[in-house]
Amino acid sequence: MGRTRGTWNTKGMWLAGAVLAAVLALTGYAVFSGGDDGGDTPAGKGGASASASPGPSATYAPPEDWTEPNSWAALPRGKRTDDHGSQVGFPKTTEGAVAMMLAANTTGIEGEKSNTDEQLRIYRSYIGKADQTSENAEQIELNALSSDKALAKQMGVSPGQPLPSGAYVRNTVVGYKIIKASDAEVSAWLLSRVVQKNGETAKESGSYTRTLAGAQWEDGDWKLTGDATARAQKDVQGQAQPKIVAPGDADFNASGWTAIREAS
Questions:
Q1: Distance between CA 44 and CA 73 in Å, rounded?
Q2: DSSP assignment of 115-154, as one string?
Q3: DSSP letters along 202-251, please?
Q4: CA gap 116, 140 in Å, rounded
Q5: Are 226 and 28 in contact (CB under 8 A)?
Q6: CB within 8 A of 43, min separation 6: which ones?
Q7: Alpha-carbon torsion angle 228, 230, 234, 240, nearest 10
Q8: CA–CA dist 121, 123 (Å, integer)
Q9: Do 223 and 104 contact (CB within 8 A), yes or no?
Q10: CA-to-CA distance for 127 and 86, rounded, in angstroms?
């Protein structure tokens, strides 16, 4: 099962993890977690393998010379913002599905906004109907509350209090690799960067994660589903997984990643 809480990497940095994987793991399907991480620095030059029980990868230093990504994509925006504050209404295209995945994995924990707020928002906005149950929602909230308590302790505040001024944890998708695509279902690997700052004077630290995602077209929009993610997991079994490397590394191109420009 994928992780349902945040965790720390080998350098003590809090990782919010790939939120969609954490949510889908609670549906009872086996999904890959976004827990392959390294210190920053980007995670493992050799690329730790994504697995049901991932561990930290070896760390590496970013390359001195920038290698321009071979592929760039300006993903479409959603047509509207829903009642939960999430961007929805993506076009029925492969790029539209990836844009939804990006939106579902773009999170920010800072000030009074908690991991619980973000996980529940993503669950309500981006998870398919079949995977939305009262039991899943309750478990997501309990796990997120636990991770918020751990993060508060790390940052020196009492649980339930806002994070210190200038402190944050942010997750942003920086690349993707399509696994399979059709009019009604798209699966992809996502490459994300997680950054953390424990206060105004603290140094920002960062790490990269790799996550497997599956989406289906449902009621006029793309939704993350356990069924699609489970099929994606079967599709990649026995295949070499794309390395966890930063854009600008030559291995980014060798692994087949597409870099993401600002949404169009």
A1: 24
A2: HHHHHHHHHHHHB-GGG--HHHHHHHHHHHHHHHHHHHHH
A3: SPPEEEEEEEEEEEEEETTEEEE-HHHHHHHHHHHTTSPPPP---TTSHH
A4: 8
A5: yes
A6: 36, 37, 56, 57, 59, 60, 207, 208, 209, 244
A7: 90
A8: 5
A9: no
A10: 12
- Which of these, 138, 160, 141, lies nearest to 151 by C-alpha position? 160
> Over its length of 264 residues, how does the chain's per-residue pLDDT go in tens digits?
333 344 444 344 444 434 344 444 534 332 223 334 444 444 444 333 233 333 333 344 566 788 999 999 999 999 999 999 999 999 999 999 999 999 999 999 999 999 999 999 999 999 999 999 898 888 888 888 998 999 999 899 999 999 999 999 999 999 999 999 999 999 999 999 999 999 999 999 888 989 999 999 999 999 999 899 999 999 999 999 999 999 999 999 999 999 998 765
Full-model pTM: 0.81
Q: How far is CA 162 from the centre of its chain?
A: 23
| CB neighbour burial string for 86-108, b if at least 16 within 10 angstroms, e if fewer | bbbbbbeebbbbbbbbbbbbbbe
β-bridge pairing 7-8 and 14-15: antiparallel
Interatomic CA distance for residues 101 and 90, integer angstroms = 10
- Token pair for 203: 């140094």
Q: Parallel, antiparallel, or unpaired for β 258-260 and 72-73?
A: parallel
**Gap between the Cα atoms of 37 and 47, Å rounded:** 9
CA–CA distance, 108 with 263 (Å, rounded to integer): 18
Which residues, including other chains, have CB under 8 Å from residue 262's CB and lie 6 or more apart? 74
Structure tokens at 4: 């349902």
The H-or-E segment that residue 194 falls in is strand 185-198
Given the structure tokens 């965790």, which residue do they identify?
7
